[in-house]
Specification:
3 strands; 3-stranded mixed beta sheet; YefM-like fold; alpha+beta
Amino acid sequence: MTHDVPVTQARAELAELINRVVYGGEQVVLTRHGKPLVALVSAADLQRLRDLDAAADERPIVAVSTATTPPSATGERRRFGIVAEHRGPTPGDRRP
C-alpha cells in the first residue's frame, strides 16, 4: 500500500514512517506541493531495485545493425552493363 505524505508532516513523523516501511511493508512517498519528491523504501526493496538496474545494464545487445555492405564496383558495372573502367595514371606514365 502506498501513502503520500507531505515533507512537512514527514519531519514530525519520521520514526513512525520508517517503521511503517520496514515492518509494515508499506510504501511512503514524500510530496512537496502535492508532487512526488522522494520515496522511503526498505533496504530489501532498495537491493531489488539495484539488482534490476544491474541486470538491465548487463543485457546483451539484441538488435544488430541492418546496414549492408555497399555493392562492389565490379558488381555495379555488370548490373548496368558498363564495360569501360577508368584506372588513372600508372606510376610510369609521363604526361606534360
